[in-house]
Structures are given as C-alpha cells and as structure tokens.
Amino acid sequence: MAFRSKEDQETLEHIHVQARRTERQIEDQFKKLHQFLEEEEEARKAALREEENQKCLMVKGKMEALGGEIEALSDTVREPEDEPSALIDEAEHVGNLAFRICSKMKDLVSYTPLVLDPNTVNPNLVLSEDLTSVEQGSRELTLPDNTERFDEHWSIAGSEGLVSGTHSWDVDVGDSTDWKMGVTPESVARKKRQQVKIWRLGLYCNKLFAASPTGQDELAPLVTPRRIRMVLDQTRGTLSFSNLDTEEHIYTFTHDFTGRVLPKFCSVLKLKILTQSVYVTTGELRGPEAPEPRGPGTPTGP
C-alpha cells in the first residue's frame, strides 16, 4: 500500500508539473499572437493616417489654387481631370480586414497534422515542447507508469485515435539508422513489449523492412528514405509509405483497420512530424491533400 501511495504521490506531482508547463506554453503562444495583432493594428492605423494627411493636403492645395480665380470661371465646364479621389478609401482599409489579417497570420502559425502524446512517451525519449519531435535523452526520465505509456524503448504514439477517413502525415527521420513508424490499435497492450498488433515500416542495421502481425518483408528501395509520407485510408483499408523527397512508393499494407487506431513511432535519433503549409481561402482553412495510395500489397525494388 505504501508503494502504491508513493506512485500516486509522484503522479500528483507530475500532474502539477504538466499543468504549469502547459500553462506557460499557452501564454507564450498567445503572447506571439497578441504581439502580431498589435503590430498589425498599428500598421493599419498608420496607413490610414498617412492617407488622411495626403487627402487633406490635396484638397487644401486645390482650394488655394482656386482662391484667386473669378467665380464665373470656377463654374465653367471643363474636361474631367484624371485625379485621385479626394475622399478616404474606407473599403481599402476595412474591407475583408479580418480575412486579410488571417491571411498574413499564416506566416506566423504552423499546422501539424499529427501531434505526439506526452502521456505515451517512453522515459528514454525527450519530447519537444511543440509535441512534434522526439529523440533519445541523455538519461531515463522519471515519469508516471500510467496505462497509456509504452514500455517499449524509444516509443511514442499520436495524441488522437483515428476511426475513419484518410489521414496523411510526413515524418523526418534524418540520418537515423534505427527507427519504426506505423499504426496500432488504441487498445493494444503497452507494457512488457507486448505490442504485437502493429503495421509498420522500419530501418534497422541499414535494412529497410515492413512488418505486420502476419510477417515481415525486407525491402530494397532505390534510396534509403530520410523523409517519409504515411497515408492511412481506413475506408479502403490501406496504410501506404512513400519517400517524400523522391516520391518513390515504398510499401502498402492492406488490412481492415476497424476500431480506433493510433500512429506509433520509435527512434533512437531525432524523429520529427513535419508541419504543413496553411492556405487561407474564401471557403476553408486547409492543408495539402493526402495523395492516393499507389496500389496494394507489394514492396518496390528489384
């Protein structure tokens, strides 16, 4: 009972640490947004004041030029002059203002289609503050042994279970020679290395392989991939991998991925989920569409 109480106490302390860390990250994100909006507001106001001054000077200049003319001549019909409007262009300053600010904000923000879950990370890994990359730490961290956490060395899962549709994410493994990535049922056992239900691509001892509960295939790609695109299509029942840099198809699993599944990753060196470009349109806020899988079943290679 005392041992259990000690574990509970450590869990409580970890919860407080998580809360303070998350609160600080939220504050940092909003500070950046507030600063951007304040600077943008000042820039818009400055542009308005500049136009106000220019228009006032223009009108005053015309008034002075006409001051010495005879009243009759001022009423004479003249050819229309091609000159700028004397009034403030309100539409230029406030028309679709929120949309235009949002369009500029896309350079400030980034979108990651998959966020890693700190509650699943193995204590041998260090997770980045933005929850997009992991790498082996210099020492094993002291973390609660909660049910979500993987015992398997250097393992971590995505934060959201997937149940339907098509999902795509890009992973940068860089120079790592020991990594794995794939999907596993959310209900899979996470302790004592019992994770047998997993469909994954991996590299070990400079050999690329594709493994599933039914077996393992050694692959012979033209180039060992450094950046990999994963596409899970739960409607068609496929999980595809391709080389993001060369567009070479690497492997496609075919399986009825019923129930909720989690993306799962394992790496000794740094592994990073890549951000995607954000486009602001009149219809929606979107990232690039996932590519179609390039056919079921077999690896490429000689």
What attributes does this structure have?
25% strand, six-stranded antiparallel β-sheet, Jelly Rolls, disordered C terminus, alpha+beta, 302 residues, elongated, seven-stranded antiparallel β-sheet
Describe this structure in words.
This protein has four helices and 15 strands. A hairpin with a 4-residue loop joins strand 9 (227-233) and strand 10. The chain folds into two domains: 6-72 and 87-109, no CATH class; 111-277, SPRY domain (Jelly Rolls, Sandwich). The chain has 302 residues and is an alpha+beta fold. The strands form three sheets. The chain has a seven-stranded antiparallel beta sheet, with no helix packed on it. A six-stranded antiparallel beta sheet has the order 3-12-5-6-7-8, with no helix packed on it. A two-stranded antiparallel sheet has the order 14-15. 27% of the residues lie in helices and 25% in strands.
